[in-house]
Amino acid sequence: MTNINDIAKIAGVSVSTVSRVLNNYKYVSEEKRNAVQKVINDLNYTPNKNAIDLIRGETNIIGVILPYNNNQAFDQMLQGILHRSVKMDFSVIVLPTKYDKKKELEYLAMLKNKLLDSIIITSKANAWDEILPFTTYGSIISCEYTDFKKIGCSYIDRYASYIDAFQTLKELGHSSVAFTTARGEESLSTQQTCQAYKEVFGELRPGTYISQCYCLEDGFQAAKRFFALNNKPSAIYANGDEVAGGIYQYAQSSGLKVPEDLAIIGQENQPVGVALGLATVDHHLMHVGEQAFELAIRKSRDKIKIPYNIIRRSSI
């Protein structure tokens, strides 16, 4: 089997020169580069990528840990990462976890084994204390805020956005407000939403929110459960525009007028929300992903805050 020693001997150059040509280093004379390339073509030589990566000490591969690959919010972050990766000629490996702690640690170990240059974590299952040791082996970037100095992050102030959404509904005259979340009380996002609700409305009564909402059908069923309560909501803040779309479907099927009988606000400015005229909190998640990728390839530990905005539409 042909190797770079054979190529060097036939081309009349050093092994290091062949290595530089294979790695596209600039500082090789045109004469030597052409001689090496001719031998490579004549022998139909295909370089071993793993060997080249070891020589360079880099793979040009970024891993992206995300819990689900069919979730609109995480898809938007991934879209931003892929958008930048194509421009920068990097490969991206998607690492879905379903919030499995063991699987997440297995992916992080890919840094230790030099299979990845960096890992971007869109959402995590493990505590940071479990993740931090892996920063010894490569760059780790978070898509949520962390004050650990070894972790760079591209993030939104989600708590402030939840406060603003609830405050918007309160200013519109709503006092009986319900909301939906994805995960349960173990989720930081759910904890922050509950705290923001308390700050704006006070007591968090039983039945005020429903978890495990991810899609249109979940939104429909959540609205059905909310309206089976004695204290029916006059407004619902959904954790995504697809969920908000399901709530809208329930309102239509039940003869409820939007926003007269029920105001609805979603998140992430998704196509279904645009089509139905749903108000939304746009966290600009594609931009979060783009900036996370930039941090990853620069191996930066910077903290980049991405602004959000509330888009008012006919549903409120």
From TrEMBL:
<dbReference type="InterPro" id="IPR028082">
    <property type="entry name" value="Peripla_BP_I"/>
</dbReference>
<keyword id="KW-0238">DNA-binding</keyword>
<dbReference type="InterPro" id="IPR000843">
    <property type="entry name" value="HTH_LacI"/>
</dbReference>
<feature type="domain" description="HTH lacI-type">
    <location>
        <begin position="2"/>
        <end position="56"/>
    </location>
</feature>
<dbReference type="GO" id="GO:0000976">
    <property type="term" value="F:transcription cis-regulatory region binding"/>
</dbReference>
<keyword id="KW-0804">Transcription</keyword>
<protein>
    <submittedName>
        <fullName>LacI family DNA-binding transcriptional regulator</fullName>
    </submittedName>
</protein>
<dbReference type="Pfam" id="PF00356">
    <property type="entry name" value="LacI"/>
</dbReference>
<dbReference type="Pfam" id="PF00532">
    <property type="entry name" value="Peripla_BP_1"/>
</dbReference>
<dbReference type="GO" id="GO:0003700">
    <property type="term" value="F:DNA-binding transcription factor activity"/>
</dbReference>
<keyword id="KW-0805">Transcription regulation</keyword>
<dbReference type="InterPro" id="IPR001761">
    <property type="entry name" value="Peripla_BP/Lac1_sug-bd_dom"/>
</dbReference>
<dbReference type="InterPro" id="IPR010982">
    <property type="entry name" value="Lambda_DNA-bd_dom_sf"/>
</dbReference>
